Amino acid sequence: YMKRRHSSIGESHSLESGLSGNDLTQGASPQNLSQQQQQQQQQPQLKKPRVVLAPEEKEALKRAYQQKPYPSPKTIEELASQLNLKTSTVINWFHNY
User: Fold this and answer.
1) How far apart are the first and last CA of the chain?
2) Which InterPro entries does the annotation name (predicted)?
3) CA 56 to centroid of chain Cα atoms
4) What is the pLDDT of residues 29-86, one digit of tens each?
5) DSSP category for residue 51
6) Would you say the pTM of this structure is higher than 0.70?
7) N or C: which end of the chain has fewer CB within 10 A?
8) Each residue of 6-19: pLDDT tens digit?
9) Cα–Cα–Cα angle for 93, 96, 97, nearest 5°?
10) Is residue 58 within 8 Å of 72, Cβ to Cβ?
11) Would you report the helix, strand and coil content of the chain in percent, each value rounded to 5?
């Protein structure tokens, strides 16, 4: 960029012929913008809904945590089946708590 800017007018004209400022930046092309917009529109659709736990479920998980903050996979499966939750939900709760 600096070399073209400080070179003589004749050289810069031949180097820049047919190019505008938008052509030099990749992110500004209409094709790239439309792809980015499509990706942004698709992302919210892929996101899973947030799991909201009932107060009884939270209490049960807290009691289990107090007994054993790092439960075994078997304990996690038992908690999930007793509370009618997915094992991934129980695992995430323990990780976050």
Assistant:
1) 53
2) HD, Homeodomain-like_sf
3) 31
4) 566 666 666 666 655 578 889 999 999 999 999 999 999 999 999 999 999 999 999 9
5) P
6) no
7) N
8) 655 555 444 444 55
9) 80
10) no
11) 75, 0, 25
Can you tell me which residue has the tokens 């945590």? 65
**What is the token pair recorded at 74?**
């078997």
Q: Angle between the 55-67 and 73-83 helix axes, to the nearest 10 degrees?
A: 160
Rounded CA-CA distance 45/48 in Å is: 8
Q: Which amino acid is at 62?
A: K
Q: How far is CA 46 from the centre of its chain?
A: 10
In the numeric block, which tokens belong to residue 8?
């003589």
CA distance 66 to 53: 18
Assess contact for 56 and 79: CB atoms under 8 A.
no
